[in-house]
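Marked as duplicate of an earlier ticket. Keeping the data here for the record.
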Amino acid sequence: MATTAPEPDLAERKGPAGGLSVVIPVYDEVDNLRSLHEALSESLQGLDYELVFVDDGSTDGSIGVLESLARDDPDHVLVVVLRRNFGQTAAIAAGIDHARGEVIVTIDADLQNDPSDIPLLLNKIAEGYDVVSGWRKDRQDAFLTRTLPSRMANWLISKVTGVALHDYGCTLKAYRREVLAGFRLYGEMHRFIPAYAGWVGARIVEVPVKHHRRQHGKTKYGLERTLKVILDLFTVKFLISYAAKPIYLFGGAGFLLIVPSGLVLLYLLVRRVFFQVSVLKSPLFQTSTMFIILGFQAILMGLIAELLVRTYHESQAKPTYSVRRVLSQREPGRPDEPSA
């Protein structure tokens, strides 16, 4: 369960061991990039960091600015240019794949997230948290078209996933690299990373961060995005709750179809035997028979899904558990002897 953390003293900030990678998805943000680079450089001064800009098919000249930043700041700037616009989730995934740091921070390129908040996130990582999520407590967006749908979506996601956050949609987040291993991002699923991390037992904390009105460019988000998030939520719930045991979902659905339908058929049989009422003329007969068939099909689908899950884990030697750390007092190179 995520908790809200008080704002720490910036003077106490420390750079993460293994370096920091800041992943910035970019789509038509030509007027914001230089200011963003300057703000990031100032906020991260003295730290071992890299800035991974991922151009997601920009058409407004953003690539030219990014090329200039890479030439002017080769020690810190890495630019990944995608062939076309794949969407924010794909851009973030590409940035994570190309990042070298052991701690990864994601931030929007529109300057609505404040780079000066990154040290706040790093302080919480240094305290032992695996995921630090920004919370735009005082959000500077249109209420009806942006803020209200976002609050509704955040409430729904928190209830479904069991990881309670006020602001899943805030891109400003920090992750230990280890909690990002083992899953791929599709659709709009970058916002669900804390839910995936919570699934493997990550420690999650939420930190209030500043939020600014957009000064340049146009927002890329609309109400249709809320529908996409809700549809992706079905996938996330399935992966979190049933990916390891899909028979629980398919088998449960099968029994929910078979048991009531069987009782209806029994009722029709009793009515036929004792009251001479025709079974075949009742619409309940056809409906119940169809549901029983569907129920058996659901159970068979569950069994097939079980085989696929086992093939997936065994072919990749992928465990069904996640280890945080191992404690041992035995001497190196001397494994415990088996008991008699």
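See parent ticket for discussion. Residues 128 and 247 are 36 Å apart (CA to CA).
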